[in-house]
Structures are given as C-alpha cells and as structure tokens.
Design brief:
elongated; 7 helices; 22% strand; single chain; 39% helix; alpha/beta
C-alpha cells in the first residue's frame, strides 16, 4: 500500500552527497522530494513542481540564498541573522544531522497546515490581524509579513498584556525543541517592529519586558 505523502520538498545544494542523503531521509519520512544543484535548476523546479517547502544552500552559486530553510556552512551569528532578515523561516548549519533537518521540515509544514483555520480578525485601534486570510492591516494599509513574522505577531496578539520569554516564544511559535539559539526571536521582533510600529525605537504594541522578553500591548 502506498504511503501517505506528507508534502513536497525541494532540496537545493551543489553537493550531490548532501542532496542524496537529505532526499533519502525526507522520502523515508513521507515527503515527495525533488533536488536541484544550481540556481537555475532550483527556479525551474520551483516553477514546475510547486514545492511546499524549499531547503536551500545559502552559498549556492548563481542565486541569492533565500528560502524557507537555509543550509549554511557559516556558523557565525551574523550570517544566521542575515538569512533570517531576508525572510527565511529557519536555518541549519553544516554539518547537520539529516534527522534534525527532517524535524525542522516537519515543524515548518505543521505550522503551515494548522494556520489555515477560521478565526475572527483581531481588531485594534490602528491594526487588524486576520488569522484566516493571514493578512495584517496597519492604519488602513496592508503590511507584508513573512510566514513566521505573522505567526509571532498573531501569537502575541492572542495573549495581550502577557510577557513571554524568548524561549517561550520559540516553544510556542517555532514548536521545535532543537533550538538553543534564541537570536532568531530577536530578529523577528525587530523586523515586526519596523513594519507595524510608528516608531520602532519606541514601540507601542510589541514591548520589551526587561529581563523577561516581550509582550503585546493592544
């Protein structure tokens, strides 16, 4: 009997060993997997296969390293932060465990599946957050957020006035236990403030709780 396909993943890396191993593990986990070795192959595959998720080498020649999950040989925090600022959902530093990568793919696609629920918009004086349409309007204008930025904002807005640590936000939004570096939370908060706050330096909605983390003020 054919196994249930959990989704499709495009793996892009110019190292054949990596694409072979990653594809094998993803296939075993129930994903339909496609591979590409160059930027052009990746664009063609994305256009024809319409994958649910892309795993992309940040240093791949011929294309900027922007995807849902980045593979990077650089472990410095600045490189990880740059990738996240570009809109990536996650990053994995080489060398990595294929099983860990599969777990991260699971987490990203699980969030995507559970996000498509019917829920009334959250109406604030200067902002509307529509969970069903995954749209945010600030002062009447739609604001373009990445998938993860929207998830962070929605989670905080669902719990107004409650302070959350970075670790709590990682658990609640990323839903992934492998994380030990919470700098991704800081990056996403900074990006959100730049998009929804009148003065990001003195945020009205996403406030810092010193020594704890962040809270949402309606």
């Amino acid at each position: 009997m054919e196994n249930h396909v959990r989704g499709s993943v495009l793996v892009v890396d110019d190292e054949p060993t990596i694409t072979e191993v990653v594809a094998r593990y993803l296939n075993r986990a129930g994903y339909r997997t496609h591979v590409a070795a160059t930027g052009r192959e990746a664009l063609d595959a994305a256009a024809t296969q319409h994958p649910d998720l892309v795993v992309l080498d940040l240093m791949l020649p011929g294309i900027d390293g922007l995807a849902v999950i980045l593979l990077t040989a650089k472990s410095e925090e600045s490189d990880r932060v740059i990738g996240l600022r570009l809109g990536a959902d996650d990053y994995v530093v080489k060398p990595f465990s294929p099983a860990e990568l599969v777990a991260r793919v699971d987490a990203v696609l699980r969030r995507f599946d559970t996000s498509r629920t019917q829920e009334a918009p959250i109406e604030l004086s200067d902002m509307t957050i529509d969970p069903s349409a995954r749209q945010v309007y600030v002062r009447g204008q739609e604001v373009q957020l990445t998938h993860r930025e929207f998830d962070v904002l929605l989670f905080l807005a669902r719990h107004p006035g409650q302070a959350f640590s970075r670790n709590q936000l990682m658990d609640a939004v990323w839903q992934y236990s492998f994380y030990t570096d919470t700098s991704t939370v800081t990056v996403h908060i900074r990006r959100l403030r730049s998009k929804i706050e009148v003065d990001p330096a003195q945020p009205r909605h996403i406030q810092t709780v010193w020594g704890v983390g962040y809270r949402f003020q309606p």
